[in-house]
Amino acid sequence: MRVEDDDGPVPDDDEPGAGEIWVRAQAGPGRLDAVLAALPGAPSRSRVQALIAAGEASVDGVGVVRVGHRLRGGEALALRVPAPPPAALVAQDLGVPVVYQDAHVIVVDKPAGMAVHPARGHPDGTLVNAVLHLLSIPPEGALVRGHPVDPARPGVVHRIDLGTTGLLVLARTPEAHAHLGEQFHAHTVERRYLALVRGALADGARRVDAPLGRHPTDRLRFAVRPDGRRAVTHVRRLGEGRWPGAGAVSLVACRLETGRTHQVRVHLASLGHPLVGDALYGEGRGLPPLPDGEVPPHPLLHAAVLGFAGLRGGRRRFVASPPPQFSSVAEACGLRGPLEAAVAAWAAGGD
């Protein structure tokens, strides 16, 4: 079962500590249990030893049950860490704005700081908790494309980052879930983002075609990798402004051709223009406070346009203005005009 994650589809077991933890190349020799326990996101060594004994580890694709198995170095290792059973979901009134709803889908405008579904570190207070309060979504036991609905992610067909704001669609029925899933898989869903980035991005439009995969040493990050999954982002500068005391910033429109985790964030950083407020990919370059004392606490990235085919025919297209914090930072940098023009053009059906 795949779910669109942030900027695109990734396997559910690609999360740290859930599903499988992979090491593609082990640099030095050592005991299997010690090497696996040292991986980012791995459980304790005693837990790793129990998992090895239970047959959850492999070396070069061959199952290994001896915890003291000696590694020469360079082997491909895998350890499956079964995910804990999900806690019962609770409906919560979290005040999430509803942009559209019918019998099949609901479109919401996610605020910054809200996770899409319960996960490690976010047991509740998520978008799924909020939507459960608003309306019914696929129940546990329902089938979507032959697979049971994940009880921790009912209705979820795509996700955006914790700090990213903007439009998401959730399915109210298994039929709608399958219909939306096919569109995401075929890359026919229209997704456009607004972003504020560091530096003066060159004028004009460009197509960033750079494959993405897990960072080789930091599982919280993704990176451009030749062995990664194909990722394509269309980037267009909308305007250039200045952050008081810190140089140029650019307002950028990004259209996703494919979808991968952190796609927009990594592609923009690879161009030398990380998102304003992105501590993960901004290489630690801080910004002085604006005159009102504000420093963005999260990446200034907003999912502004979402378009997809309706279950019963026709095309649905939604446009959401960025939240006040995004707009106020843009205004402080002299970019209010280009921001309002872009939103107006999209709302009028423009490209």
Helix and strand run: EEEEHHEEEEEEHEEEHEEEEEEHEEHH
Structural class: alpha+beta
CATH-assigned homologous superfamily of the largest domain? Pseudouridine synthase
The geometry reads as: globular
Strand content: 25-35%
CATH fold topology of the largest domain: Pseudouridine synthase
Please outline the major beta sheet.
9 strands, mixed
Number of strands: 21
What would the average pLDDT be, to the nearest integer? 82
Q: What CATH architecture of the largest domain do you see?
A: 2-Layer Sandwich
Question: How far is the N terminus from the C terminus?
Answer: 32 Å
> Into how many domains do the coordinates divide?
2
Indicate the percent of residues in helices.
Answer: 10-25%
> What's the helix count?
7
Radius of gyration: 22 Å
- Given as residue ranges, the uncertain stretches (5+ residues, pLDDT < 50) are 1-19
Query: For the record, what CATH class of the largest domain applies?
Result: Alpha Beta
